[in-house]
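subagent[fold] <- orchestrator: predict structure for attached chain, return tokens only, no commentary.
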Amino acid sequence: MISKEIEAQLALAGVCQAAALVQGVARKGNIDETAYESSISSILVTAPENTQQVYGSLNNLSLGFATLCSQLDGKSKKKDAEITRYVASILSLERKLSANAKAMDQLGERISHVQRQLAHVEFENRQNLASLASIYSDVISPLAPKIQVAGNPSNLSLESNQQKVRALLLAGVRSAVLWRQMGGKRRHILFNRKSILAAAKQALRVIN
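subagent[fold] -> orchestrator:
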């Protein structure tokens, strides 16, 4: 069992993990596969018994909690303005999505379709990635100005990487929805920074 303090920040770590992975795909073209699979899988866990079940295990959010720490720790030299921008954009998209009943219905239908698809193809199948990427393009992206992803043009020109980026942004929005459902609000990141940071550090100690 994990502490209530850690559980309260699982979804925010999920948002940070998706943002870090987007940056990794765009800039380096290679990413932490465990973190990637966990983030992508989280989109398809729509009826969890608890928050941790969405991500499989606490270890799967190691990158997310490390990113959360470096972004919130005032002493850290690792704070990354690009990650901050991605996180802010994902949280903003979630607000637009939650206020749009039609888009929420479309999202639910399209995710159900991918869940049914999994009965016939392996999770790693490219078809699943393409389906998740198209959900982001068709349902989520039109709700707000496009998120400008910066990176290496040779990485971003590959269709497989473009699909990964879109699917990861969808995973970020999924975590943002969960965070809001658990009472998370953007102002908490500012006003509850110390307690969020303490929970993230505690999570990393448990993981390590």
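orchestrator: received. Logging for downstream: The first helix runs from residue 4 to 27. The CA atoms of residues 187 and 193 lie 9 Å apart.
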